Structures are given as structure tokens and as C-alpha cells.
Amino acid sequence: MDEGGFNFDGDYGESYEALARQVIPGYLTFFPMFAALVEPDLPPGARVLVIGAGTGIELVTLKRVRPDLRLHGVDPSEQMLEIARRRVTEAGVADGVSFQHGYAEDVPAAPLFDAATLINVLHFVPDDGSKAALLGDIARRLRPGGVFVFFDLHGGADPEEHERYLSAWRRYWTIRGMTADEKRRFDARIREGIHFAPASRVVELAREAGLTEPRRFYTSLLYGGWTFRRAGG
What we know:
42% of the residues lie in helices and 24% in strands. It contains 8 helices and 9 strands.
């Protein structure tokens, strides 16, 4: 998979975890945070759909919090799936975890899931109908009332706000130890592969997909985290 400048089956996939820890504010604390938030909404043996399973960090976090959960991790990158499989196995939480190579649209439409997550994925998808399609694919695989956890890099409400936080984010990279050359290369990847949409647009698209009750529980620079519920519960 090559989303613009982000090749998840190449060098970016191999270095993703280290880079994420460096550039995403609160990366390591986010996963236990959202697990603590949604845990009461998950019935015993709940089925959770994880779109963009990545390095497996959210799979491991959820299983450690609730060993009874049945998790289905989906990712279009074979390399990332292999990293996730290895991480889950090494953590001793592989029981009840399944994997699928592909996209949300490839996940069987039944049985429905009790919850779903989309973390650090939507910003790679253009807002040309593709963002809406991805959110719709996820919503259709959630039971009515099911919880949806969303975390993403989004745009500012207007150009001035966007530039203010984007500039601050770039300075954050320096503070976190990124060299000038690393910053230049990462900035080029962002310009090519990130499709910013304001937070209001993201919430609008989620609502149109049938995901209601947006509650923002995380914000830091251009990153935000929300929970939603599938309509009809």
C-alpha cells in the first residue's frame, strides 16, 4: 500500500511505530485512554472491528484490558499485519484475535460488530467521496448502538488556525528530536499523502454515515479523538 508519500509495505511501515511515538502528541497514552473510555460499553465477548490494525498496539491494549474481547484487525499492508500478528503473539493475547488483509469494504457484512475503531487512518484518504465511503463501510458493520472510536490528524477550522497548529506541530518535531533532514522528508510526505479535513467536516461525514452522538475526548494540535454511536440503538 502506498498512500502518497507513505508506503506501509516499505520503509515507512518498518519505522512507523518509532515515528508515531515521536510526532503524535500523547501517542502512548491514547490507547489505554480510549480503552478505559469505551470498556463499559462492551458486553462480555464483544466483537470489535479494528480498521488499520497497524502495529497491533490497540489490539494488545484492548485484550489486556478485556481478555474476553474478540478482535478483528484489518489492514491493506501485509507488512503491518505481520508486525501486528507478531506483537499480539509476543504479548500472549492472540486468543480471540483474527486478521484480514484488505479494507473495511472487504469485511463480511455479518455478523455485526459491537464496536469499531479507526485510528490514524482517515487522514490518508482523500475527501472526494472516499472518506465518506470508508466511514459508511464501518457504520454498516456496526450493530445499532455500537460504539465507534475515531482518532485522526485533521485540519484547522480555517486557514489561519490550520497554519498556526501545523507550524506548532512542526516545531514539536524538533523538540522531540527530529533532525532538519528528517523534518524535511516527513514534511514532504505530509504534503503528498495527508488529506486534511476540518474537525467539523469529519463529524459531518460521520453523521451522514449513520454515526451519531459525537463526543470529543481528545485534542492536541491537529489531532483529535471522538466516540460515536451507530444510529438505531
